[in-house]
TrEMBL record, chain A:
Its main location: mitochondrion. Transmembrane segments: none annotated. GO terms for cellular component: mitochondrial inner membrane; respiratory chain complex IV. It is a single-pass membrane protein. It comes from the Eukaryota. Keywords: Membrane, Mitochondrion, Mitochondrion inner membrane, Transmembrane, Transmembrane helix. The gene is LOC120065643. It is found in: Mitochondrion inner membrane. Gene3D superfamilies: Mitochondrial cytochrome c oxidase subunit VIc/VIIs. It comes from Salvelinus namaycush (Lake trout). Pathway: Energy metabolism; oxidative phosphorylation. Component of the cytochrome c oxidase, the last enzyme in the mitochondrial electron transport chain which drives oxidative phosphorylation. The respiratory chain contains 3 multisubunit complexes succinate dehydrogenase (complex II, CII), ubiquinol-cytochrome c oxidoreductase (cytochrome b-c1 complex, complex III, CIII) and cytochrome c oxidase (complex IV, CIV), that cooperate to transfer electrons derived from NADH and succinate to molecular oxygen, creating an electrochemical gradient over the inner membrane that drives transmembrane transport and the ATP synthase. This is Cytochrome c oxidase subunit 6C.
From TrEMBL, chain B:
The gene is LOC120061478. The lineage of its organism: Eukaryota, Metazoa, Chordata, Craniata, Vertebrata. This is Cytochrome c oxidase subunit 4. It comes from Salvelinus namaycush (Lake trout). Keywords: Membrane, Mitochondrion, Mitochondrion inner membrane, Transmembrane, Transmembrane helix. Pathway: Energy metabolism; oxidative phosphorylation. It comes from the Eukaryota.
Length: 76, 187
């Protein structure tokens, strides 16, 4: 029973050569997924909201609802 | 500095002398008699306490070679086998090699790794304590807790939600974004 001599050197190097490209690729994938899954939709949502935003109209709606203390609803 | 790595059996036997209580000693005797063949020690102590100044034997997966062999005190048959071991090993038969292994070691690696039924005790004990805790929590909810604040009521919660919508809380991506202001309903 004669077994082959096991690898005695270069074990860390071998591991790094295998795992580092994978780690790098997965990190890039994670960053891209976050960018295109979260930040871009969020930027778009904000842009869409403010495209049709009328600040005065919203203010008057809020005033009529009675949430302000400095300005009472019209008619009081 | 030399560090003694002890398994549970050794630690229990060590503390048995210190604690000296009947329960631990009975448990210690039970554990030390569990092996099919006891290792023959040259010393017999009154209090069944391990002498930590002597080389110890252990069965551990991560430390394969203990400080001493399993069988210390050899009878004449073992002694002659040990003599034969000093010669060329090709002269040893398979049974002799196995006998030499069993002199040196108590359990083989597969025997050490043999799975036990301990997990059932652990999981069972966990669930028992979960159940007891659940009963305690239920009793507590009934007998200990004061009445809930009035702000938890249905009416108050409805008024709260209406006020949040009036204030346009998080109108872009959050709370008010999900409310349809034209049709006065959730989107």
């Amino acid at each position: 029973m004669s077994l082959a001599k096991p690898a005695m050197r270069g074990l860390l190097g071998k591991r790094l050569r295998f795992h580092l490209p994978i780690a790098f690729a997965l990190s890039v994938v994670a960053a891209a997924a976050f960018k295109y899954g979260v930040t871009e939709p969020r930027k778009q949502a904000y842009a869409d909201f403010y495209k049709q935003y009328d600040a005065t109209k919203e203010f008057n709606n809020m005033r009529e609802a009675g949430i302000f203390e400095s300005v009472r609803p019209t008619g009081k | 500095m030399v560090v003694r790595v002890l398994n549970l059996n050794q630690m229990l036997r060590l503390t048995a002398g210190r604690v000296g209580c009947l329960l631990s000693r009975r448990a210690v005797v039970g554990m030390t008699n569990s092996g099919a063949r006891m290792s023959s020690h040259s010393h017999h102590e009154v209090s069944d306490q391990v002498d930590m100044s002597q080389p110890m034997y252990w069965d551990r997966l991560d430390t394969p070679l203990p400080d001493r062999a399993w069988i210390d005190v050899l009878d004449s048959k073992d002694k002659s086998l040990k003599q034969k071991e000093k010669g060329p090993w090709t002269a040893l038969s398979k049974e002799e090699k196995i006998a030499l292994y069993r002199l040196k070691f108590n359990h083989t690696y597969p025997e050490m790794k043999k799975p036990s039924h301990e997990w059932k005790t652990v999981i069972g004990g966990m669930f028992i304590f979960f159940g007891i805790t659940g009963l305690v929590v239920f009793w507590q909810g009934h007998y200990v807790y004061p009445p809930q604040p009035h702000t938890f009521g249905e009416e108050w919660q409805a008024k709260q939600i209406q006020r949040m919508l009036d204030m346009r809380v998080n109108p872009i991506e959050g709370f008010s974004a999900k409310w349809d202001y034209k049709n006065k309903q959730w989107k």
